[in-house]
Amino acid sequence: MSAALAAPRGIDTPTEPMIDVAGLVKVYGGNEGDTGEGVVRAVNGIDFHVDPGEFFGFLGPNGSGKTTTIKILTTLLRPTRGAVKVGGLDVVERPQDVRKLLGYAGQSIGVDGDLTGRENLRLIGHLYHLPGSVVRDRVEELLDVLQLTEAADRPAGTYSGGMRRRLDLGSGLVHHPPLLFLDEPTTGLDPQTRNAVWEYLRTLHRTERMTIFLTTQYMEEADQLCQRLAIMDHGRIVAAGTPHELKAGIGADLITIRLPQDGSFEANRARALALAHTVPGVAGAVEFEQGVTMRAVHGGATLVEVLRRLEAEKVPVNEVAVSPPTLDQVFLQHTGREMQVEEVRPASRGPWAARRN
Amino acid sequence: MAATESVYRPAAPTISAPAALGSAGGIATEILWVAYRSLRKLSRSPFLLFFTLMMPIIWLGMFSQTFGTVFERATNVPGQAPLPYDYIAVLLPGIAVMSAIQSAAQSGFSMVSDIETGFMDKFLVAPISRASVLVGKTLADGVRMAAQTAIVLAIAEIFCVAFGWKIPFATGVAGCAMIVLLVAAFGVAFAGLSNSVALFTKRTETTMMVSFTLTFPLLFLSTAMLPYDLLPGWVQAFSKFNPVSYIATAARTLILTGWNWTEIGQAFLAVVIVAVLLYSLAVFAFRRQTA
Ligand SMILES: Nc1ncnc2c1ncn2[C@@H]1O[C@H](COP(=O)(O)OP(=O)(O)OP(=O)(O)O)[C@@H](O)[C@H]1O
Ligand SMILES: [Mg+2]
Predict the structure, then answer these.
(1) Which one of A153, B87, B116, B209 is least enclosed by Cβ atoms within 10 Å?
(2) Above 90 in pLDDT, residue A169?
(3) Residue B68: is it exposed, middle or buried by C-beta count within 10 angstroms (0-12/13-18/19+)?
(4) B residues 128-187 near A, CB within 8 Å?
């Protein structure tokens, strides 16, 4: 398994991990070792940990075992095998104590369409045994930050997809959990609403020091939000690390150099290409209509060297860019397949989307 | 590889549960909130509410018309004074039990729909007793059954005044309250079956089939529709093992003659036995569902 899984705990983070999973297996419709019709090995031996305060993600395509894992972590399912600790507590032995630590917003949005938004949140608050006045204040606060105050007295069944997602997110937050589980929190949302949810999650993570565990099928979401992530495929973690490490593991950044479109463009481009080939670390350079692109393991360092040589040779440069590899390439490298994401139907726009227009 | 950018140092990690948790109330609070939520849902469905409450009245009208004359002919012995009450008085407790059983049969539906919508997970990730969810839901159904029973008793009384129906109501309002309690308690107990099926199968159709298939034999192979003496021999034998009989008989005595604490005690014992059996099954199903 990748080095990132065995991050230097004990030095940076003397506390126990918030989530500690070792040898987790989940078999539906049977036991460990069973085969045959109807037996599904949804999670096939995974190990990982999440530190307190970390924003951690599971990235994987449909059926890779993300929901199964999150349901085990939230005590909704029992593991077939493996040691699973949340907040230092065994999820099988002390589920009730684990539940006190966590908030959860599932993949199928669990809001009651017959209750109003406010009633949905209050119910959750009372189920967590919060005193009445605390419930009232907390619910108003959440309705406010989630921009649901105006719709608070309408049945949640009349909400747009984005509003329901937010309400569901809110219901996972009523009791101020130190640990939040989100199963595909932005699936089905339009880009603007998605951005707003991202922004809110970042704020939560920063200001409430919440540990967040998120699953997603979106490369961009994992890349934007997660400090560390595990890439899941067929019930296994095929790669793990910071988005940066994962992409760096691919080997090469993309360097793009654009040249001025003047009379000597063609000649300059030929010289730039020839030069690029001489720089150590450049893994391959090609021309394109605006200049030259090349691959390099350490994009930044290589770019400096390329620019120095261009300068020395007096080749004029218009614009430069270094772009890291994407997580798509990471997934491809580890599985040999492109990650297929189900086509998403954007939810109709809620007030969040409107606000951001 | 610039790893420094990504090394994360938590500001002040917390692993303890929020301090405010667990301070307000115990299991009773949980049950009440689960029940409140179900009743709130019912109040948001006016049609459902209306038909729930009207159903027993429709049964009452239909059965009294259809079987009333048959019953009179059967009980009218020449040379003796006619009975001082109508068949409707005999039937009334049966109708009440029947309505409660029907509501109980549907009790599992909301369980299935909560599982399907994912709302059940909200209950299950909360640090509440699993039994609270089950009991809270069926308790809400119990409130509904109590309301049904109270309404059908009230309507029957109104008909006595308006159309001269002969129902003695021998134990008055207190007796009626006892009937409401008995019938609702039995309904809640019986709802354990529909919830078990719901939790085992997670399908509304199956829940409906199993419950409805059992509903009518339970009713007709009991003393709910006719007094014990008028039942055929083999039904009499069966009815002794049928808890519905004990509820119906106790309620009938309360309406026709007076307080009979033996019968009432037996009826509550029947409720307890049914509840223990069916709720054990339901809790087992609940555990399995989340395994
Ligand atoms: N209750 C169940 N019974 C049997 N098989 C199941 C059950 N739930 C999930 N599975 C199977 O387990 C595998 C993993 O499913 P899971 O829901 O964990 O994937 P996922 O990564 O969350 O996928 P998605 O992105 O579609 O939500 C799939 O093959 C799925 O069909
Ligand atoms: Mg999933």
Answers:
(1) A153
(2) yes
(3) middle
(4) 128
Neighbour tally for B240: CB within 10 Å: 11
Query: Do the beta carbons of residue A13 and residue B10 sit within 8 Å?
Result: yes
- For B130, the closest chain A residue by CA position comes to A96
Q: What is the pLDDT along chain B (291 residues), one digit of tens a residue?
A: 433 333 333 344 445 656 556 555 689 999 999 999 999 999 998 888 888 888 888 888 887 777 777 777 777 777 777 777 888 888 899 999 999 998 999 899 999 999 999 999 999 999 999 889 999 999 999 999 999 999 999 999 998 888 888 888 999 999 999 999 999 999 999 999 999 999 999 998 998 888 888 888 898 899 988 888 888 999 999 999 999 999 999 999 999 999 999 999 999 999 999 999 999 999 999 888 765
> The complex's ipTM?
0.84
**List of residues 6+ apart from A90 with CB closer than 8 A:** A83, A84
- pTM summary value: 0.80
CB contact under 8 A, B3 and A242: yes
The amino acid at residue B218 is: L
User: Strand pairing partners for A215?
Assistant: A58, A183
pLDDT tens sequence across A99-142:
999 999 999 888 999 999 999 999 999 999 999 999 999 999 99
* Per-residue pLDDT tens digits for A183-206: 999 988 888 888 988 999 999 999
Q: Is B59 left (phi over 0), alpha (psi -120 to 50) or beta?
A: alpha
Question: Which chain B residues contact residue A248 at CB under 8 A?
Answer: 1-2
| Domain boundaries of chain B, sorted by first residue | 15-290
| Beta carbons of A110 and B11 less than 8 Å apart | no
Separation of CA B127 from chain center: 27
In SS3 terms, B105-170 reads as HHHHHHHHHHHHHCHHHHHHHCCCCHHHHHHHHHHHHHHHHHHHHHHHHHHHHHHHHHHCCCCCCC
CA of A43 to the centre of ligand 1 (A): 9
CB B124 within 8 A of CB B130: yes
Q: How far apart are CA A110 and CA B119, in angstroms?
A: 4
What amino acid occupies position A79? P
- Interface with chain B: mutation pick from A56, A92, A97, A127, highest number of B CBs within 10 Å: A127
Confirm if A26 and A43 have CB atoms less than 8 A apart: yes
Distance between terminal CA atoms of chain B? 43
Work out whether strand A55-59 and strand A228-233 pair parallel, antiparallel, or are unpaired.
parallel
Between the two ends of chain A, the Cα-to-Cα distance in Å is 44
